[in-house]
Amino acid sequence: MKRLRSVAELEKLRARVARQRDPNRICIVTSVGTCGLARDADGVAQAISRTLSDLGLADTVDFRTTGCQGFCEIEPVVVIYPQRIVYQHVTPVDVPKIISESVVGGKVIKKLLYVDPSTGEKVTREQDIPFYSKQNRLVLDSNRLVDPHSIDDYLAIGGYSAVSKALFDMEPMEIIDEIRQAGLRGRGGGGFPTARKWEACRSAPSLDGVRYVICNADEGDPGAYMDRSLLEGNPHSVIEGMTIGAYAIGSHDGYVYVRHEYPLAVANLGIALEQAREYSLLGENILGSGFDFDIKISRGGGAFICGESTALMASLEGKIGEPRPKHVHTVTSGLNGKPSNLNNVETWANVPLIINNGADWYSGIGTEASKGTKIFSLVGKINNTGLVEVPMGITLREIIYDIGGGIPDGKRFKAVQTGGPSGGCIPESLIDLPVDFDRLTEAGSMMGSGGMIVMDEDTCMVDIARYFVKFLTEESCGKCVPCREGLDRMLDILVDITEGRGREEDIELLEELGVVIREASLCALGGTAPNPVLSTIRYFRDEYEAHIRDGRCPAGVCKALITFTIDEDKCTGCRVCARECPQAAISGEKKLLHTIDQDKCIKCGLCRDSCKFDAVTIS
Amino acid sequence: MIELTIDGINTRAPEGTTVLEAAREMGIVIPTLCYHEGLSPYGACRVCIVEVVKDGGSSLEASCTLPVEEGQVILTNSEKVSKTRRVIMELLVSSCPNSKTLQDMAANMGINKVRFKIKDRGCILCGLCVRYCKEQMQSGGIGFVGRGTSRKVATAFDITPEECRNCGGCEWICPVCERACTAGSLVDGLCGGCQNLAPVETCPVCVGCSESVGPHGHRVY
Question: Are residues B103 and B169 in the same domain?
Answer without folding.
Answer: yes
